[in-house]
What does this fold into?
Amino acid sequence: MIDDPDDAEWPLKALYWEAGTHDWNKHDWGIYAARSQDGLRWDRSPGLVLPQWIDRFNAVSTRLDGKYVVYGRTADLQRGMSRNGRSVWRTDNPDLIHWSEPKLVLERDAEDPVYMEYYSASVFPYESLTLGGLERMHMSPDRLDTELVWSLDGGWTWVRAPKRPAFLSPSTGERRWDDTWTSLPTNAPLRHKGRLWFYYSGRSGAHAAQYPSNHGAIGLALLRIDGFASLHAGERVGQVLTKPMIWPAAELQLNVDPRRDLAAHPGFCSGELRDESNRPLAGFTWDDCVPFTGNTVAAEDAACPVIWQKGNSARTLAGRTIRLAFKLRDAHLYSFHAQP
It folds into this structure.
């Protein structure tokens, strides 16, 4: 499902896979398009738009840079299926009909396990990034988990964490409905009560699984807002410095979790504002900042404003080029943002 509010006539779009006449030689199978005004009645007149694309694909639920975007496996089986195992290709267009030449964007490399391939990727915009759930199929045994990847150029070039941990894994222990496959949705998570809500899909069986092992359902996974990753300092104090930025008329807010592992040395996070030459600004130094010593997860959007001595306000720096510095001990810094 694609949410397209700028199209007053057809605000909802859908892409789906269909086998056509089930005669593979007729080539009438692949990805079809439909459109709707209310989500109940659908016009299927766009028809077959990506012939012979493989059934496993994900359409981004909103336009990216004004275009509809699909991540999947191209109609060219030699490229989409046999090139170094399953891989992820991207195609896009502005009209839902005339799609661009597919481009390879994700494929396994020497650091991946031998028996692992990329089934597909679910992609969604998040703040200034494009995030993706890379579906990793472990072939022996047949098992699928999701790795978090990110892009700085709208979903063309993807970055992976050095250790490539799983972001969403099948359940372990006793048999469950989601103990074999788990996949993220193509829409961004919902924000609710300081958490990100992911409605994910899971399965208890893989390819060719027979009843009752082929059960599937929808589950809910929760994550603190911006909790995809953090800057972390242990018992030794660590510091981080941002690039110069033009500050708006806003307060500085932090999403942070100081850990009180030792009562004598509680965790904390402090801030300092500096000019573009990296010199501390009067009234916004380490000594002027009231340190964070508590978890902000319970606050609205899981963030709280930085408090400065003497009632100083970052709003007074509107229009200036500044740098932000943070100092942490036994703490996780998840994000910072300007709050109007």
User: Anything to note?
Assistant: Residues 2-224 form a domain with the Tachylectin-2; Chain A fold (CATH 2.115.10.20). The longest strand covers residues 116-126. The two ends are 33 Å apart (CA to CA).
